[in-house]
Amino acid sequence: MHQRETTSLELVAVLILLWTGSFVSIAQQPAASDTFEKEVRPLFATHCVSCHGGESPDAGLDFTFARGGMPTSDAGVAVVDRKEPNKSRILKAISYADPDLRMPPDGRLPDAAIAAFTAWVGSGAYTPPPTAMPPPKATSRPEGVGDHWAFQPRSKPALSSTWIDDAIDIKLRERGLTRNPEADRRTWIRRVTFDLTGLPPTVQEISALLDDTSPDAPALVVDRLLASPAYGERFGRKWLDVARYADSNGLDENLAIANAWRYRDWVVRAINSDLPYDRFLTLQIAGDLAGGEGESDRDRRDRLIATGFLAIGPKMLAEQDKEKLRMDTVDEQVDVASKAFLGLTVACARCHDHKFDPISTEDYYAMAGVFRSTKSFANLAFVSRWNSHDLSNKEEIDARATWDREHTIKEAALRSAHAATLRSLLLPSSRLKANIAVGAARRSELAAHDVRRPPPAEQAPGVAEGEVGNVAVHLRGSHLSLGASRIARGPLALWDDSLSRPEIPPSSSGRLALAQWMTDPRHPLVARVAANRAWAAFFGTGLVRTPSNFGLRGETPTHPELLDALADHLVAHKWSMKSLHRSIVLSATYRQATATVIDERDPDHRWLAGFPRRRLDAEQLRDAYLSYSGELDSTRGGSLLDVGEGDYVTNDQSQDKGRYDLPRRTLYLPVIRNAAYDYLTTFDFGDPSLPMDGRPTTIVPAQALWLLNSPFVQARSSALTAWATKSADTTAARICALYERVTGRLPNPDEFRRAEAYLQDAPLDRFVRVLLASDAAIFLK
Amino acid sequence: MTHQLSRRELLRSAAIQLGALTLIGRTPGTASLQDPVVAARCLPVRAKRVIFLFMHGGPSQVDTFDWKPLLERDNGKPLPFAKPRVQFAQTGNLLKSPWKFAQHGESGAWVSELFPHIARRVDDLCFIKSLHGTNSAHGGALLSLHTGTDTFVRPSMGSWILHGLGTENRDLPGFITISPTLGHGGVQNWSSAFLPGSTQGSPVGRSGLPAKEARLRHLTDPSRLPEAQAEDLRLLRDLNSASRTSASHSPMLDAQLDAFELAYRMQSEAPSAFDVSKESVETQKLYGIDQPTTEDFGRQCLLARRLSERGVRFVQCSHSYKWDQHENLKAGHAKNAAEVDLPIAGLLTDLKSRDLLKDTLVLWAGEFGRTPTAQGKDGRDHNPHGFTIWMAGGGVKPGFSYGATDDYGFYATQDKVHIHDLHATILALLGLDHEKLTHRYAGRDFRLTDVSGRIIKETFA
Predict the structure, then answer these.
(1) E strand segments, B2-100
(2) Phi-psi domain of A160 (left: phi exceeds 0; alpha: psi -120 through 50; beta: other)
(3) How high is the mean pLDDT of chain A?
């Protein structure tokens, strides 16, 4: 905002705004303004307002005339001399008669223009009335798709068999660079195993690859990894970053979203089953509306669970202005959906037109109308509650109803038996005994029935259709000042020329239509955004380094043709992510050796003249340590948060009810907003209240303290030491075994010598601790 | 050891001076005039560091510093004007303060009998009696005060300040929050959000745990002696250099090793910084550490001084969630005030005698004030519409009061100060222009003060 550059685009925008303004004025002042608007204002707009306009016009002279009247300079000099018009300063300036006062400074105006100005001054120098709106500001916001790369249709590059490497090599050659040679197989299998599954390769897996000399051995490894359930855990977690997944609400009232884990587990399942990305998107926006004929019960449940994407955002549940709560929730949904799928910051247009992208407040409120027509709350009580789906199928509902009915009958039978017993107290004892026996029988029937009680309905946070309607523009984002008319709900208008605008039935929120619009294969953004996220998973950064912002303020891609090719590959292969991932990890670009020198032509490895080294992320690091020590519990799914739905997970006493001490994969540890597990935040996990735009890698002392001193590392280190002691007899053998297990390779002679020297005086445990913290262990190369 | 020394020299590189040992966001040599952080440092520096005394729960302005004679006169009568559109709970008629007010010091500031010790320091204080926000629930109000917004997730004030100024002590974190609450926004109140992770507040202890047990995490490893740790660090350095090929160079690997060495130094520096028992008996007494009532907050305040003295930019002490007297106002506020009064006065005295007050900004605030109208018979509801905070030291005008509420202390009326204005003012006191201290995220430049903020220059000395 502070470093705005004036571009020709900006000037064009100013002109467009000025023209728009002029038509308003004409309507108001037909006679006097006609000449001004037609002949004079365009001259000001073309020649003057780039300096004498905008937020701080030069000399204080604003020739957009937005404030009405003739502007006076900061120095107090009048532009027009009303008494002697011919001596007006403006005419002197444009005449170029005075060498110290020549305007415009870059060249004298054409005679016709000077004549028009002179006539205008001579006839009384009419100025338009002030516009009701604030003065139009110079802005770089284009009116339509303009020429911004990401808003154009994808190019259709012809694909050779080495299309990824070709695209990378072209750019490398342009810079006089070359790709590195292929990494050795040990390096590659460690890299690809961590990247595809988040776990290190076992020593056996490494040996198997080394022994298999056939050329398709790497492809077989990749197929094995893609089929592993750990693949979904790795890429599931990546998606959960984007989906700002958490097990608690955060914000003001930190209640447990105790069933959010069903959404997390669905994400993992969906990715493992290679659910096509368009379907993956659709279910998260409109799963409740996307059922099909003859679907399985599992599919039906999954559809409902997937809408958790829209339901698990942080909400100000104790906000007492409930309409504000609802609109803030809508805003959060617009924000997460547009960033995640469109790579656009649509939520910027809540209070004003987007400053940089062609997204108007009308666009925002069209999309907001879709989510305002969606049921996101179960109630709006003092502390409100998010909406949940009952996942029961018909049989389960019927079973519970049947059980309830029989329970009522059996209870009634027991009550009447009791009554009969009471009445028979005065009757002969035989009757009494008989009635007591009947009562006992009824009681045991009821007890037997109670044992057969069907389990309670399973719930999952999710959204449903709500009160359907359009919303008006909220002036400055406030629900207390609404614009005059309601905006028809639906997707952005930006591509109305190229994408068909879906029909939204009057009774529908429009979520399904929104999803259909997004998954149109011609949509310029959706496939590109998804492909870019896929690329970033393997190279640390995307081809576009702002994965959730493909707008004008986002970065441009380093390799636009490659990005389009990746996106096309995704769409052409039925939106299969596995297929895309497979192509990337088998490319020579991915298989090349790590960059070891800093080349000024590729300082941050964006051109990929070498594989960019990365530190293991929080999940990889913790899961790897548990794998090395042999303690990893690979149980999949479920909740580690032992609290009820809606219970407080943090409160005034700051109790934290999450459990983090189980040796499960890090993905399954609770994610408590406002109190995220400190290990995770130390290692750049980020704030789970926000859609994460790729994680940064920070290197801070708190991480080093954890690696040096944490009880977690101490415990893993002890277990690993015990393993090494048991599996090898000599110090030399132990060093080699530990190195191979932890770094995927054997120690080089130098490392070996230093380790051996150290172990002459120190216990093995201390060496293990150092090894676990060493570069070879915590970096991926 | 010579090798270690040369590494120490390396550690004095520009990146470390800026306090951000991060690879992304602040790489060495990238600071330039275009860097918003550098551009923002354009105002006169009046304060170098901040101690924020946070009174969680919402202390009542009309029972502490905002004396309202008409409230006393009209006790029991209805409020003669409208209550806010959105209220947290329903309140009844006016309720006079149970405490007597008197004027103190040369400035003649009114202070209730709740704060006899602070009353003796009023000539150091600069009151703002017209603060206002919008959110009447704790969570939203805490987030507003700490991050400038109750709608979005944004970096905290301490993170912005550390981001803007960098750290002065390479051996300690630059932003430390003592005994913070995990509720009402929790970590978001000291979160760096999209700023570099190194600007995140480091919590020590938490609300509910005694301040005596407040420690940085993983600071020590009792199983290894310091000598052994030094040996291990040497082995780590040896293995790392052995794993590199001769020509290889990686700033990331260098930064990683630097982080280990800084962590190692923190292990020796931090325990002594956190050890208040090193202070003299008189000093401990000054903070009330010798008395059970004041022991806990006294420790926090003394710790704050020790950390500030060592160059920590932003230290927050939290008197956690105690001031929320919807009922039992008399007993509750009396107890709370007794817990903090002496320690705060002690902190001010101590800072002044060490000549630290002149460039340390002390801020005292709750997330909102309370209603002059009664909730029940002996309680007051939340009131974000007009409340009192004070600042001291760090270039503020001592013995001064700015702004006012209406006759009953419900709404800020005169010289209103929004929370954005307070933030703008705090940044300005630190020499930072709140409009220039921006950070690009998701394509937009963000500020602590969003698009608002008026610097209240009237409060400057």
Answers:
(1) 49-55
(2) beta
(3) 88
User: Per the CB < 8 Å rule, is A698 touching B228?
Assistant: no
Picking from A329, A478, A775 by the largest number of B CB atoms within 10 A of its own CB, the best residue to mutate is A775
- For chain A, what are the domain ranges? 8-122, 149-220+525-617, 276-387+465-518, 395-457, 709-780
Q: How far apart are CA A765 and CA A768, in angstroms?
A: 5
Is residue A244 within 8 A of residue A213, CB to CB? The reply is no
Q: Which residues of chain A are within 8 Å of residue B30 when distances are taken between CB atoms?
A: none
Task: Dump pLDDT digits (tens) for B180-202.
Answer: 887 787 778 988 887 876 788 88
Hey, which residues 219-278 in chain A have their CB within 8 Å of chain B? 250-254
- Mind listing the pLDDT tens digit for each residue in A123-161? 888 887 665 333 334 344 567 888 899 999 998 877 788
Of A316, A704, A767, the CB nearest to B259: A704
DSSP state letter for A341: I
DSSP 8-state code for residue A49: T
| pLDDT level of residue A13 (50, 70, 90 thresholds) | very low
Query: From residue A547, how far is each of A691, B29, B446 by CA, in Å?
Result: 11, 26, 18
Of B25, B220, B443, the CB nearest to A551: B443
**What tokens appear for B191 in the block?**
């979160």
Q: Which domains does chain B have, with CATH numbers?
A: 43-220+277-459 (3.40.720.10)
Q: Which residues pair with B178 in a beta bridge?
A: B204, B317
| Inter-chain touch B217–A705, beta carbons under 8 Å | yes
Task: Please state, in angstroms and as integers, the Cα–Cα distance from residue B207 to each residue in A316, A476, A650, following that order.
Answer: 22, 38, 11
Q: Where are the alpha helices (DSSP H) in B310-409?
A: 329-353
Q: What is the pTM of this model?
A: 0.73
A597/B185 touch (CB, cutoff 8 Å), yes or no: no
Q: H or E segment at A526?
A: helix A526-539
Residue that is written with structure tokens 């016709």 in the block: A112
Length of chain B: 461
Q: Chain B within 8 Å of A551 (Cβ-Cβ)? A: yes
Report the distance separating Cα A430 and Cα A428, nearest Å.
5
Q: How far apart are CA A591 and CA A168, in angstroms?
A: 13
Three-class SS of residue A160?
A: coil
Q: Is A613 on the interface with B (CB under 8 A)?
A: yes
Contacts of B183 in chain A (CB under 8 A): 254, 650-652, 654, 674
Could you give phi then psi for residue A701, rounded to 5 degrees?
Answer: -60, -30
Q: What tens digit of pLDDT does each residue of A478-510 get?
A: 888 888 889 999 999 999 988 988 999 999 999
Give CA–CA dist B143/B135, Å, rounded.
Answer: 9
The answer to whether the Cα torsion of A391, A394, A396, A397 is positive or negative is positive
For A736, the 3-state DSSP assignment is helix
Contacts by B229-237 with C-beta closer than 8 Å and gap 24+?
B229/A708, B229/B264, B229/B267, B230/B264, B231/A758, B231/A762, B232/A708, B232/A766, B232/A769, B232/A770, B233/B260, B233/B261, B233/B264, B235/A754, B235/A755, B235/A758, B235/A767, B235/A770, B236/A770, B236/A773, B236/A774, B236/B260, B237/B3
Residues of A in contact with B267 (CB under 8 A): 705, 709
* ipTM score: 0.74
Count other C-beta atoms under 10 Å from residue B358's C-beta. Answer: 14
Task: Report whether A369 contacts A470 (CB < 8 A).
Answer: yes
**Quick check: A684 contacting B, CB < 8 Å?**
yes
The burial class, CB within 10 Å (0-12 / 13-18 / 19+), for B113 is middle
Structure tokens at B290: 């010798």
Three-state DSSP state, A51:
coil
Contact criterion met (CB below 8 Å) for A466 and A376: yes
